[in-house]
Amino acid sequence: MRALRILLITVVILGGLFVLADRLAVGFAEDEAAGKLQTSENLPTAPDVSIKGFPFLTQVASGSLDDVEVGIKDYEAATGTDGKTIRIDDLTANMKGVEFSGDYSSATATTATGTASITYAELLKTAKSEPTEVAPGVTASVIGLSDGGNGKIKVAVEATVLGTKLPNPVYVLSSVTTEGDTVKVHADTLPDFGGADIAENRARAITDFEQKIDGLPGGIQLDQVQAAKNGVEITVKGSNVRLAG
Question: InterPro entries of this UniProt entry (predicted)?
């Protein structure tokens, strides 16, 4: 009985040491991966990297991690226009089947899915905010974007007719979609600028706009987009996504 008790205590101690070693190892790996990703993506701060699954050491032995979650608070994505960028907030990507090198200098995920958001203030930079003539004596510009409910964006347009600024903005509800690497905003109905006769293409030159989003981390791509309370929420996906190296 004494020998059995000693054996059980030994097993418990060894099990505890294994768990401790496993958690120390995963913490080290997460820090190393975060540092490599920060360098490869030129991030101002290290991202959050969380390696899921237990035990970690057996995954290391196989050279593949089942599930890795990466979180980047702020990311400046390229727009393909004169070096300009657009800020992507709260980018979270879930990586599956991550193959990595022994020193974590390179890592590639078989698949990745994730979410992120773009504030209305950030997206507004894409819209035509300078007064533009849409008809003789009529100029207009987009001055605000907000949640229109039911997955729509409410676009506020300011107009001046024959030198007189309309007392209130004109609002239109717009749909937001993705096409490849581009977010597109398209008005469901055209604005009424005090009854002025304006051709549809001239009105849409103000109300409709698009924003290319290129160079997301690791080569992930835009998937879907939807208007929400504080901005547009996007989903991303990718295959053979590079985390580092």
Answer: DUF2993
